[in-house]
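#structure-requests
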Amino acid sequence: MRLTTSLPADPRGVPDLAMARHLEQLGYDGIGAADVIIGDGTPGLDPPLVLAAAATATERIELEFGVLSLPLRPVAWVAAQVQTLQHLSGGRVVLGVGIGGFPGSPFWRAVGAPPTGRGRWTDAALRALPGLIRGEPVVVGDAELTLGPAAAVPPILVGGNSEAAMRRAILYGDGWAPSLISPGDLAVKVARLRELAAELGRPVPSVSVGGHAVLVDDRAAVESFVGSLVNAFGMSQEEAADIPVTGGPARVTERLAAYAEAGADAVGLGLDGEQWLRQAEILADARAALN
């Protein structure tokens, strides 16, 4: 199973890039960067810049957008950034994309991002991106655009738990990337993903699950995260409590195995800020036991 996590951040939201090398040494497959710029004072850094910095600190580990909100950015700009990062990193990019989760937030309004029609915007961007990254002529708006230097198109993961996101992944992506979902619910979704792929006559995408982990004895941190799911997403307390991965290596290995049995090919877990290094080691040990 492929395993990723994001870099730790200080209270200002600035990642410790020295930890990128440590993740590589621990055997992680990827470093993720979330696209959570809201504009209300919540710390949030620009993913392309975070991953470019991580690229300079590492040699092997993949650099994953987890996930980039396409409606926030002109598609030509996204393509140019991906091209650049592919060249800077030696082709280590994994491009996770989605429709974005904070429409109407101050940042979205400030950059003029569309609060509606995000699915159509994302579909159009996904149709254009591969050709742009490869350096082919592509019509964008009223311009025929050719970007260079050409780069290899990275694996494209389409985020979102909805059936629309699954269809988007089947039609335009290499993988589907649901998040904040229990193994039981994932199994149901993966069965539907396979049905949709058969209906559309397309290959079944890989499945990369995003989630959150608290791997130290910190009940307050678990309760805080569960509460945030209840408040932000309207989950029931029981449903939300089944989302975070908790416990020591043996328990975490069981959870990773449950995701694998449900159809996951990869898992990316954000780690709670306290004792980040110890948690990263526990997660790496748990994956090693699984494999």
